[in-house]
C-alpha cells in the first residue's frame, strides 16, 4: 500500500473512532508562545516533551535549520501573525546540535538538482532574475550563531510587537537537553535599564 493510501486508511479509522478527542483545543496557544524550530525528524515528539508542551500550548513553525533567513519571509510573517492575531506573547527559536543545515553544501545540492533533471537553463534564469541559489541554500557554520541571528532578526523587526521576549535555545536531539543561547527576558531588562 502506498504511503498516502496508508495515511487515508488510518485517518478514516481515527475519525470514526473519535481518536481526535484528546487533541481538541483552540487556535490560541495556552502558553502564549510561538516556537521556531527545525523540521528534523528527531524533534517531532522530543522537542515538545523536552519543553513540557502539550497540544494547544504553543504555535510551532518548522523549517530547515530553524532559520529566519529573511525579515519579510514566511517564517517572520507567521511569527507576527501568532503575536498580533493569536495572542502569543513570547517567541522561542530552538536550533539543535547535529543539524543538517550545518553541513549543507549549496553546490552539491544544485548538482543533485541537475542530476534529477533541473536544467542549467532553469538555474541560470533564476540566477539572472536575482535569486542567488547558493546563498538561498546556504546553511550555517555554528548553530549558536544561527540561533542568535534568527533571534536578532525577529527582535529587531520593524513590525515586532514591543516588549516581547525572544529566546534562543539549542536542543540536543539525543537527550532533549536544552541550552540557552539568548534569554529574552534579560535582553528586555537590559534594554529597559538602558532607556532609564
UniProtKB/TrEMBL annotation:
It is an enzyme of class 4 (lyase). Its cofactor is Zn(2+). Binds 1 zinc ion per subunit. The keyword Zinc applies. The lineage of its organism: Bacteria, Bacillati, Bacillota, Bacilli, Bacillales. Its EC number is 4.2.1.1. Gene3D superfamilies: Carbonic anhydrase (3.40.1050.10). Keywords: Metal-binding, Zinc. It comes from Desmospora activa DSM 45169. The keyword GTP-binding does not apply. This is carbonic anhydrase. Belongs to the beta-class carbonic anhydrase family. It catalyses: hydrogencarbonate + H(+) = CO2 + H2O. InterPro entries: Carbonic_anhydrase, Carbonic_anhydrase_sf. One of its GO terms (molecular function) is carbonate dehydratase activity. PANTHER family: CARBON DISULFIDE HYDROLASE, CARBONIC ANHYDRASE. Zn(2+) binds at residues 38, 40, 96, 99. It comes from the Bacteria.
